[in-house]
Write a structure and sequence with these properties.
Layout (H helix, E strand, L loop, with lengths): L7 H13 L4 H16 L5 H5 L4 H10 L4 H11 L5 H12 L5 H14 L5 H9 L5 H13 L3 H10 L8 H7 L4 H12 L10 H6 L1
Helix pairs in contact: 1-2, 2-5, 4-5, 5-6, 6-7, 7-9, 8-9, 8-10, 9-11, 10-12
């Protein structure tokens, strides 16, 4: 049970009722955001969240991923719980849009990271390298790459480390302590002198 006093099943049932009734895009956005807020604060995993949605409801949510802007964000976040290719494509499109709201882009980077798909590595890496991308989004992309527990994702961070701006480098090292695969790449990079051992703090070392 979450802060609203409803179970996850009741939360999704309420969303179904909203979709079955007269819906404006504003109401759709509000209903989906309520689901995101409630279920993200419930003690359930992404897979457990995904299991709450039947196929007809999934299809309606996926359709919303390419709909009005305000509803796209929560729709993509929800649909990524079941690794929807439609949601992933829509999310990557928004993340790559330099004119999209920075907070929205950062939230979608985190949602894509939770889905842990290796196809997201290139998108995240592009954000890390882009000096015109706001630092909030670049930091989210760095965290995502480090948290994927994927050798290729961690290597992408290490390979770009030398050209990162000074304020992003500590974030990159911190991200490389987030998973076993990333930690192995960090230690290898230090050994190969790709990353200066002096850039690694005692706190980073404790996390490895």
């Amino acid at each position: 049970i979450n802060y609203s006093g409803r179970t996850p099943q009741e939360i999704v049932a309420d969303l179904k009722k909203s979709f079955d009734g007269p819906m404006t895009w504003q109401r759709t956005a509000q209903s989906l955001q309520e689901v995101v807020d409630a279920l993200m604060q419930s003690n359930v995993t992404a897979d457990q969240r995904a299991a709450l949605f039947d196929e007809p409801l999934r299809q309606r949510i996926e359709k919303t991923c390419n709909g009005k802007a305000a509803a796209r964000l929560p729709a993509c976040i929800v649909a990524l719980w079941w690794h929807s290719p439609v949601a992933a494509q829509a999310a990557r499109s928004i993340v790559a849009d330099m004119w999209a709201d920075s907070s929205t882009r950062a939230q979608l980077v985190r949602a894509l990271a939770e889905s842990n798909g290796p196809e997201n590595i290139a998108s995240f890496n592009t954000l890390v390298r882009d000096n015109n991308t706001p630092i909030l989004i670049r930091q989210s992309a760095v965290d995502a790459l480090g948290s994927m527990n994927d050798k290729a994702a961690a290597k992408a961070l290490v390979d770009d480390y030398a050209t990162m701006p000074p304020d992003l480098k500590p974030m990159a090292i911190n991200a490389l302590t987030h998973s076993v695969a990333a930690g192995m790449e960090l230690m290898a990079a230090i050994s190969a002198k790709v990353i200066d051992v002096n850039d690694v703090t005692a706190n980073h070392a404790r996390q490895l």
